[in-house]
Amino acid sequence: MHRIVEKKVLSDEVFLYRIEAPLIAESRKPGQFVIVQTDTEYGERIPLTIADADPVAGTITLIFQVVGDATHRLAALPEGGVIENVLGPLGRPTHIEHVGMVVCVGGGIGVAPLHPIAQAMKRAGNRLIVILGARTEKLIILESEMRALSDEFILCTDDGSRGRKALVTEPLREVCARTPKPDQVVAIGPPIMMKAVSETTRPFAIPTIVSLNSIMVDGTGMCGGCRVTVGGQTRFVCVDGPEFDGHEVDFTNLMQRLRTYKPFEDQAHERCHLELQIQELKKHA
Q: Which CATH number is 2-90 given?
């Protein structure tokens, strides 16, 4: 059992949980993730990147977006409640070293897993440029935390409600064209964004790392559900990743696989919202 010591709503259907997990907090490294279950008998296994950790307090921070039945159940847990099962840390840690200038590009909920990587890159002595993007101002998360880490900070929104009205690739292209150019780019966000970032950096021959969040079941390499194609070969995100060379990832294949269960997620999302509305009506009946 893992107690939820803090619960926050960051934006529309995006939640931050700080939970008790002392062994994970002590051993986790940037880039790694956990799998959580609210019900160990019937509950779906949900992979979530560790956004932060406090080894002294024995807590880890998880940030997630509600997309289906399992995440609705997770979001319904109260502060002080418990998550029955948390498995981790899983996945290969981010390779951190002093390379010179690093650009961290985050989109939407992808800013959460990017945060510990940016922390580690900064601690390693790199000059850090952070570019964050979201569809609208209400969907921006961890702005103050990422801004505090940055030597240069650029904020973009699709609708121009905050920061620069642009996709993240626009300022990224400008940064890549500078002299000297960046030594490394790390991008985490929707697959379409990571694909666009990788294509932006390709002509400049800038090493680009992306973190993939594919369909995942067991998280230990046994089921093969998280398979992706990288450099023409099959890789498994849970044990070979989650980070890969963005110039080698077959994003078209990844996005096709991610759409497999999208109709079922949408149906579950609508059903959960309807159930909540019925519960509210009953309270006031």
A: 2.40.30.10
